[in-house]
Amino acid sequence: MTLKDFKLAVCLGLIGADENIPKKGRISSVQQNTFKANVPQEIRYDSCAHMPIHGSSRRCAYCSSTSSPHRTKWICSRCNVGLCLNASK
């Protein structure tokens, strides 16, 4: 066996060994929340654009986050989500 064949056999053995080793860590006992869309599928995936109207103050669905909430007075009349009406968005 040449040195090259030996190194190849060692590499292949090590790569294959990873599949048999159990993964470390704990399984979470708390079930994580998954994102659930509030907009019905029929409205969400049709080909019509947003129809903004002036309404009550609410969070923008596009640019708002938990750490940086952005409030807007514009909402979509079809899907009822907050919209920031800027040229860049």
Main features:
single chain, 89 residues, alpha+beta, 3-stranded antiparallel β-sheet, 2 helices, elongated, PiggyBac transposable element-derived protein 4 C-terminal zinc-ribbon domain-containing protein
List the total number of helices: 2
The whole-angstrom Rg is 26 Å
End-to-end Cα distance: 64 Å
Percent helix: 10-25%
**Widest beta sheet: strand line-up:** 1-2-3
Q: Which structural class matches the secondary elements?
A: alpha+beta
The biggest beta sheet is recorded as: 3 strands, antiparallel
Please provide the ordered H/E string of secondary-structure elements: HHEEE
Q: Identify the overall geometry.
A: elongated
E-strand count: 3
Spans where pLDDT lies below 50 across 5 or more residues: none
Mean pLDDT: 77
What is the beta-strand fraction?
Answer: 15-25%
